[in-house]
Amino acid sequence: MTISRKVQGFITQSSWIRKMFEEGLRLKNLHGAENVFDFSIGNPNMPPPAQFREALQGVLAQNLPGMHKYMPNAGYDETREAVARHVSRIHGLNLMANHVIMTCGAAGALNVIFRVLLETGDEVLIPTPCFMEYRYYADNAGGVATFVKTKPDFSLDTDAIEEAITEKTKIMLLNFPNNPTGKVYDEASLQRLARILEKKSGEYGRDIYLVSDEPYREIVYDGITVPSVLKLYRNSIVAFSYSKSLSLAGERIGYIAVNPHIADMENLIGGFILYNRILGFVNAPALMQRVIAKLQGVTVNVEEYRRKRDILSDGLSSLGYTFTKPEGAFYLFPKTPVEDDVEFVRALHKRKILTVPGIGFGCPGYFRIAYCVDDATIINAMDGFGETLKEFVSR
Question: Is this prediction's pTM over 0.85?
Fold first, then answer.
């Protein structure tokens, strides 16, 4: 075998999301895009806000000397300062530019964080359901992903988390608003989690870090506020991406922000800067750094996603599907009418409806619908959703 057994295994287990996305492209070429209902991937369908085009054109018009050259690996000072001011406002802390590292999206940020924090065999504790490629990020750094279930409504089970922490636990990884459930963890649960991590850090004589992956932080509904892990726990780090909030998924721009009181901050930041370079990212894209510096606090029209959520959830509820209504992000995670979620997703597939089975998020018995799509896709898929559910209920 040419490639390693581990990589061969990873390929075999590789993302259900990407598999279904690629299948969607194939079906669209065969049947026409209007006849395929692709809910497979969280690829924002809304264009970036008008301010993005204005900022981009403004940066290009400046034609600054050396604007496309290498820069400090942490990013442009003025961009880090702008991000630090915004993060300080939303998290209620006083961050400076040196607490921020510009990255190639949240995925790049997490890989940098893991490589700096993890020793071989260290554990990353992750609530499920979750984005399952986290396990590969942990493996990239020699770590081990350990999964712990959430409660039936997808809220944090802090008792289960406390029981799962061992002397090998180095990182507690959160993602909220959550992919795939849309759950926003409440502040009381996060406060309890912070107390547990502090206690366990003391018991084991080493720091456990709370890392929060927050690309959906600014996509929330119904007046819900996303609590700040930076404010609640000293050894906390946030990974953020503009992929969702500004619909810039293809531009690969994000940041790492650290609690200004984090342990051994100077070495930690130095490590992040080093690994931003030696993992091959080198630095976040120059043009996008200059643009997003002007767009702090700007988002797409979140009300549009709220409206799509309601069209989808109202339609599926009337058909008999059961689910917890998402509080943020742009995913719905209904229960399947049979235990075998893959079988149900394949039945939807026969009606050219592409979704992702819950097993792809470590939570069988559910399936994920990404509703960041045109209204017509949601509305025209309803008959197929209804027919498929009837097929299984009538068995």
Answer: yes
